[in-house]
UniProtKB/TrEMBL annotation:
Residues the entry annotates as binding substrate: H113
Pfam annotation, one family: Aldo_ket_red
GO molecular function: D-xylose reductase (NADPH) activity
Annotated GO biological process: D-xylose catabolic process
Catalytic residue list: Y51 (proton donor)
Record's keyword terms, sorted: Carbohydrate metabolism, NAD, NADP, Oxidoreductase, Xylose metabolism
Stated family: Belongs to the aldo/keto reductase family.
UniProt xrefs under PROSITE patterns: ALDOKETO_REDUCTASE_1, ALDOKETO_REDUCTASE_2
Pathway in which this enzyme or protein is active: Carbohydrate metabolism; D-xylose degradation
Protein name, as recorded: Xylose reductase
Domain NADP-dependent oxidoreductase: 19-302
Amino acid sequence: MAPIPNIKLSSGYDMPQVGFGLWKVDTAVASDVVYNAIKAGYRLFDGACDYGNEVECGQGVARAIKEGLVKREELFIVSKLWNTFHDGERVEPIVKKQLADWGLEYFDLYLIHFPVALEYVDPAVRYPPGWHYDGESEIRPSKASIQETWTAFESLVAKGLSKSIGVSNFQAQLIYDLLRYAKIPPATLQIEHHPYLVQQELLNLARHEGIAVTAYSTFGPASFREFNMTHASKLAPLLEDSTIKSIADKHGKDSAQVLLRWVTQRGLAIIPKSSRQETMVANLNSLDFDLTEEEIAQISAFDRGIRFNQPSNYFPTEFLWIFG
């Protein structure tokens, strides 16, 4: 297998273009999944407070390091700030907790998970806190601004708690606002990105501002069917689409590899996941061929502007204050 190429971040650090996503990796298997992914060749792991599996993922990392499979400096560990910790004084303590959960001294990249500030929930009460203040139905917004949160993020870099900082699920207006006051610009933007949601103008903005983009949910509705979203169940599965399959056949690849290559060939990073070793390896091997410009255009033409990962899709009546 060829080495995974890196993307140079504005912070000066290199980020692997292909990483391993940890969303919905069950705690019962997370340690083994991370360990096996390291054995397969992955070096970037994309985690978050909200995934609820950082302790177990850290155990997988520790096992691989102890056995000499990898050194800490060869790994690129990403985590994210949950919505309930946006108040400036809450950022550093929760980062230190997350680092302790991982068994690490620093993150390579730390992101604002959503541009949504919710009232603080003490980790001793419930962790991860989720969306609801009471753990059931009540949504309580916080008054913390993105500027307040970002200023606290910049202090993480100064204190060596994270080498790079960035944002996730931000749109153009918020990025432009952030760039007005940021002393350290965001190194990366992580977004939902698949053929049904191309967001080309946002990609152009990020490229112009020197912000690397990481794409998640590359396979479109596949990750969201379990949430009973109407538009997720009605859309044709991209992995089964005849156009994607035809392109895959031409290159001797499978549909997943074609969709992943559609992303990376256009300069973005990817974070697919799988618990199956053969699929882990296949996803890494999505870099060893090139699509034609016509094939890239064919896939991009699927664009419908359809977004799955936004709060109003999970809790439509409770987030009118954000999206209504």
